[in-house]
Amino acid sequence: MIPMLSVIFCSLFFSFCSDADENPVQNKPLPENPKSLKFLALGDSYTIGESVCESCNFPEQLKMQLSANIPNTVIHLKIIARTGWTTTNLKSAIETENPSNDQDLVTLLIGVNNQYQNKPFSLYEQEFSELVSKSITLVKGDPNRVIVVSIPDYAFTPYGHGSSSISGEIDRYNNFAKNYCLQHNITFVDITDISRNGLNQPELVANDGLHPSESAYAKFVERLLPIAKQILSE
Question: What is the pTM of this model?
Answer without folding.
Answer: 0.86
